[in-house]
Write a structure and sequence with these properties.
By secondary structure, this protein is an alpha/beta fold. It has helices spanning 14-27, 39-49, 65-75, 90-98, 111-122, 132-141, 155-165, 170-177, 181-195, 200-209, and strands spanning 5-10, 30-36, 53-57, 80-85, 103-106, 127-128. The protein is built from ten helices and six strands, in the order βαβαβαβαβαβααααα.
């Protein structure tokens, strides 16, 4: 069990929480360390257990999953958050990501999508359900926040960030730019620090907002 990914489940629907626990425990490699029904309890349990992953519903009593994600980032910085919701509108997606969520998954996703999202986030990457990424980037393009150009990043850092915004992982970026994966990881850490963000998705959003990289082409 020491190698299991520890998980906090927060949802105000008992049957949904129990279903998540059953899926995760049946799959193996996951340990549900806490199961709560409201946002305040999610924050407190994150503070106590410091789980690797917090699965958060958006609509919960007390505080929303978005606010819970924001507070969990403060009380348990090592915890990565996956927002599970029925909300499909791009502004809700964007708000969740700005609050620090590392993934946004719709509740009608199948079990394999959930498992993959957890593993992707646990590796330090980000995951967005279906066309959520495209909708968020489109929202930014249409002016949700006016972009401002600046010279925060070097040309090579811009190249890396542009590929991050397209959804490439470190290995793909390394191959495309003829760099080592370690170099890409180090450069990303520097980029995060310069932009004041903590994960790839936030970095991509900030970069598009500020005009640091062009939005990826919409399919």
């Amino acid at each position: 069990m020491s190698d299991s990914i520890t998980i906090l489940v927060a949802d105000d629907h008992t049957m949904f929480r129990q279903g998540l626990r059953e899926i995760l425990e049946r799959k193996g490699g996951f340990q549900v360390v806490a199961e709560v029904s409201d946002g305040h309890a999610a924050v407190e349990q994150a503070r106590e257990h410091h789980p690797a992953i917090a699965l958060l519903d958006i609509s919960m009593p007390g505080i929303t999953g978005i606010e819970a994600a924001r507070q969990i980032a403060r009380v348990s910085p090592e915890t990565r958050t996956v927002v599970l919701t029925m909300h499909r509108d791009e502004r809700t997606v964007l708000e969740a990501l700005r609050a620090g969520a590392n993934a946004y998954l719709l509740k009608d996703a199948d079990a394999s999508e959930l498992i993959e999202a957890i593993r992707v986030v646990h590796r330090g990457e980000a995951a967005l359900a279906g066309s959520a990424a495209a909708r968020v980037l489109d929202l930014l393009r249409r002016g949700d926040s006016a972009p401002t150009a600046n010279d925060l990043l070097t040309p090579r850092e811009r190249d890396i960030l542009a590929l991050v915004a397209q959804g490439d992982d470190n290995r793909a970026i390394a191959l495309k730019l003829s760099l080592s994966e370690k170099t890409v990881g180090n450069r990303l850490s520097e980029i995060f620090q310069k932009l004041g963000v903590s994960n790839r998705t936030q970095a991509a959003i900030v970069a598009v907002q500020r005009g640091l990289v062009p939005p990826p082409e919409m399919s």
